[in-house]
Every structure is written in structure tokens, then in C-alpha cells.
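Entry:
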Amino acid sequence: LLLVVKTKYLKYMIANSEHGNQTALAAFLNMDEGQLSKYVNGRLVPGVAAINRLCGALECQPGDLLTYEPD
């Protein structure tokens, strides 16, 4: 099982959210900006708790942020 962050869509969602940028979203989520940056750039797949927080803040579903890519 390999889950991958849909980086382009996540960047789009952040830019078009009420937060407008990664810095504001990280502050709203009380999340380290470096951690959020790793998610946004696909260097790290968020865990369940982070997915819940991101989906709540961006008003989206987990499938909007992640995709499955077979090995």
C-alpha cells in the first residue's frame, strides 16, 4: 500500500482557502510550518490525525488529498 499526497491539488486547496497560504494554514492548525511543507511537497504522507485536521481546515475529503499508487 503506497499512499501519495496530491501535491498540486493540495497547493491549490491551500491557495484558495480562507487561509490563503501555508504559513497561515500552519498557524491555524497549530502545526509546524516545516511539517506542513513536507506534506505539501510530497516528502511526507500525513498520518490520520493530520489528514483529519487538514480536511477540516480545507473543507475536503481524504481522497482529495491522497491517492493510491501500487508498488
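The beta strands are 3-5, 66-68.
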